Amino acid sequence: xxxxxxxxxxxxxxxxxxxxxxxxxxxxxxxxxxxxxxxxxxxxxxxxxxxxxxxxxxxxxxxxxxxxxxxxxxxxxxxxxxxxxxxxxxxxxxxxxxxxxxxxxxxxxxxxxxxxxxxxxxxxxxxxxxxxxxxxxxxxxxxxxxxxxxxxxxxxxxxxxxxxxxxxxxxxxxxxxxxxxxxxxxxxxxxxxxxxxxxxxxxxxxxxxxxxxxxxxxxxxxxxxxxxxxxxxxxxxxxxxxxxxxxxxxxxxxxxxxxxxxxxxxxxxxxxxxxxxxxxxxxxxxxxxxxxxxxxxxxxxxxxxxxxxxxxxxxxxxxxxxxxxxxxxx
Length: 330
What we know:
By secondary structure, the chain is an alpha/beta fold. It is built from 12 helices and 8 strands. The chain has an 8-stranded mixed β-sheet with strand order 1-2-4-3-5-6-7-8, sandwiched between helices. Helix 7 crosses helix 8. The longest helix has 15 residues, at about 205-220. About 50% of the residues are buried.
């Protein structure tokens, strides 16, 4: 349990990273626009690719990760196959509302609740974040969507499929767990690095180096992103939004929500489901992904050799194919 606490508390940094290398999709670029909506009491920033009349795919990111952690070329490729693809910033990250009034998590009160499913001491919960996604869909007049989530976003996607099945066409859970607190966590060295607090500084070079080291550690060994590109990503993320307090509140939601076993509830999911997990994920053990697939009836499990806890551009063709094989009906 001690190792589990370390990994879940200290996912206060951005644990998902994408390369911004441009890869041309198969056909012309789909329509893209950015916007904001007001839902569930907050302003939510989003980007939409493709025809707004097409069936929707809603993409949910992980702890501290901005919408840009979904590779744009992945969104373009899915849109070019006849879907409206929406990626958005979760609450407390990116350009979505920052909940300053909630203050820092009270870790002394929260830690004793790990494994109890008691959310009473949290600033907000993963369920609240699931409602944000539903609110985004409502604001965009999307009745049903294919829900795709990565890491914490995978847990949120699972909760949407559990509690709002009427809004879900399919579920894709990427590098996420079932909430079972007994699953062995990832690589201790990587988790230890992630457990190092970010620097208390306004120096962007120091912060970028901190993020670079995290990105390097969690990246996919079989699909590496070069160092200069990783540093560019770190600087771009800082420029767009660097907000550690929001990451801490998200981490508080995760430390309780992802130590609250969802396997019984996952068995109730009836929509087509795909579970994707990297065989070299140093943050969420691949056994956690296998548990998700085992819990959901007829779920398809795809393990990817060489994939870590990121979404490298080199994997976009494989990820696109896997998602489309689940959702596309000719």
